[in-house]
Specification:
alpha/beta, 13 strands, 35% helix
Length: 297
């Protein structure tokens, strides 16, 4: 099994379903409400664990009911939670999500996620030493992500970065990234260049970018600066929340099979994830993914 250390956010998703998105100042009556475990870090950890990876989570929750529940949820998924720290100074992070016609609008309150520090990366050095791949996102402080990348380099581990939420990435961090996994907008912002085409941006980081393209699939910049494309899979979407996180967890899990096969499996896993509500609840198991891919051939 691939051993993946996920460094990132752990949230409780508060999901409201409505027939339309509210305009400023408008109050609507919704059709439903539910809470789901979330956070890009925890989502990607769950996706990888369900697909057969051996996963450790490095994050931070508050000393509250949501924190306790989220830690227990990760443990039930078979994820090592010894590196999930608890803070008394901040509540567990939440995401307020409105879902309408399979699209979503999200407000994230980081809470304890912003209490994850570079010192925690040093405290968890043993986790970096034992991992095959380190996978991170940007819902924890950028200084912490950079410290994680430095620990990965120190121990000779590939560092995969999903640059979401999108920000301009400093060159000092980009230099430490083995694989960047943005969508087209995130790629332009990460490299601070909205004028160039995504193909031109790919050429700046050959062999180091996999770009998600929604229903269209994904593209990879090969080491010779060519582009490898993987088409998407047609499914009936119910809730797109967590599709990108599923893709990233799958990509890290199957990267050892080569870029082409990892992208094929990641696109298929991402497609399967949108057929059920909730970020983590829709993520497929390895058996479900294998069955789906057999049906596509």
């Amino acid at each position: 099994m691939t051993r993946i250390l996920v460094v990132g956010s752990i949230n409780m998703d508060l999901v409201t379903t409505a027939s339309q998105f509210p305009r400023p100042g408008e109050t609507l009556t919704g059709q439903g409400f539910a809470t789901y475990p979330g956070g890009k870090g925890a989502n990607q950890a769950v996706a990888a664990a369900r697909l057969g990876a051996e996963v450790s989570m490095l994050g931070c929750v508050g000393n509250d009911a949501f924190g306790t529940e989220l830690r227990q949820t990760l443990h039930r998924e078979g994820i090592d939670t010894q590196w999930v720290f608890t803070t008394d100074k901040h509540p567990t992070g939440i995401a307020s999500i409105t879902v309408c016609d399979a699209e979503n609008a999200i407000i994230v309150v980081p809470g304890a996620n912003h209490a994850l520090t570079p010192q925690h990366m040093q405290d968890a050095e043993a986790a970096f030493a034992s991992a095959d791949i380190v996978l991170a996102q940007l819902e924890v402080p950028l200084a912490t992500v950079t410290a994680a990348a430095q620990q990965a380099k120190k121990h000779g581990k590939p560092f995969f970065l999903n640059p979401a939420p999108a920000v301009v990435l400093p060159e000092s961090l980009l230099d430490l990234v083995s694989l960047l996994t943005p969508n087209e907008y995130e790629l332009a912002l990460a490299l601070n260049d909205h004028a160039a085409s995504w193909q031109a941006l790919f050429a700046r980081l050959p062999g180091r970018v996999v770009m998600t393209q929604g229903k269209a699939g994904a593209s990879y910049s090969t080491s010779d600066a060519g582009i490898l494309a993987q088409a998407g899979f047609a499914v009936s979407a119910v809730d797109t929340t967590g599709a990108g996180d599923t893709f990233n967890g799958a990509l890290a899990t199957f990267w050892h099979l080569g870029a082409a096969e990892a992208m094929r499996r990641a696109c298929a896993a991402g497609a399967l994830s949108v057929t059920k509500p909730g970020a983590q609840s829709g993520m497929p198991t390895l058996a479900e993914l294998d069955s789906f891919l057999e049906q596509q051939s």
